[in-house]
Write a structure and sequence with these properties.
Length: 205
């Protein structure tokens, strides 16, 4: 049974720097992203699970030093689909504003129903399935390398958060969060002392 879980968002991509929505687009890391990931202190775990996207797999390989073949790949932890918004920047997305409902959390407006994309409830459902799949692993400690929105909803499942609280957890590239599981109740709790801050000069969407 898993007792220790670490989650990490992938490193920087060109879309991150240009503030373009990637979603399911299979974008690789930028050269800066690869350099940053290669300098992350190794995280000792039994099993590594990654999103199938190149940016997540590259990050998993670089931060652990493992061969790709030794990393488990799960489509359940891929990024949220943004449908028609994928590949667009802020100015291009503005023309869709009348077609989308938004939830403001802090200074950020989160799209609730991107055309052709997933809702947060759909992402949360995937996160619940993913959490169940992790319980089947024969490992004590696991590292999950994924994406910001998926990890927000995964943390929502682990910590029983509401939607607004999960979206308030902005996750920087290469930021990690650690969780421990009570063997009796099966409930997860966050270990804030073990979290890594990620890219320091990151500007959120």
């Amino acid at each position: 049974m898993i007792g220790s879980l670490t989650t990490m968002r992938h490193s920087l991509t060109a879309h991150n720097l240009a503030q373009v929505i990637s979603g399911r687009l299979d974008e690789p890391l930028s050269e800066t992203g690869r350099s940053l990931a290669a300098n992350v202190p190794n995280i000792p775990v039994d099993t590594v699970v990654s999103s199938p996207s190149r940016r997540a797999m590259e990050t998993a390989v670089l931060v652990t030093g493992r061969q790709p073949a030794t990393i488990r790949v799960s489509p359940l932890c891929c990024e949220r689909s943004y449908g028609e918004l994928e590949g667009l920047d802020r100015h291009q997305i503005a023309k869709y504003r009348s077609r989308i409902h938004y939830l403001r959390v802090g200074d950020i407006e989160h799209s609730l129903d991107p055309p052709g994309g997933e809702t947060f409830d759909q992402v949360r459902y995937r996160a619940e399935q993913f959490a169940s799949s992790l319980c089947e692993l024969d490992a004590e400690s696991v590292l999950v390398v994924s994406h910001e929105v998926f990890l927000q909803q995964f943390h929502r499942v682990l910590l029983n958060l509401d939607l607004a609280a999960s979206l308030a957890r902005q996750i920087r590239p290469l930021q990690s969060h650690c969780f421990t599981r009570d063997p009796g109740s099966g409930q997860w709790s966050a270990r804030e002392d073990a979290a890594q801050p990620g890219v320091a000069d990151w500007i959120p969407w």
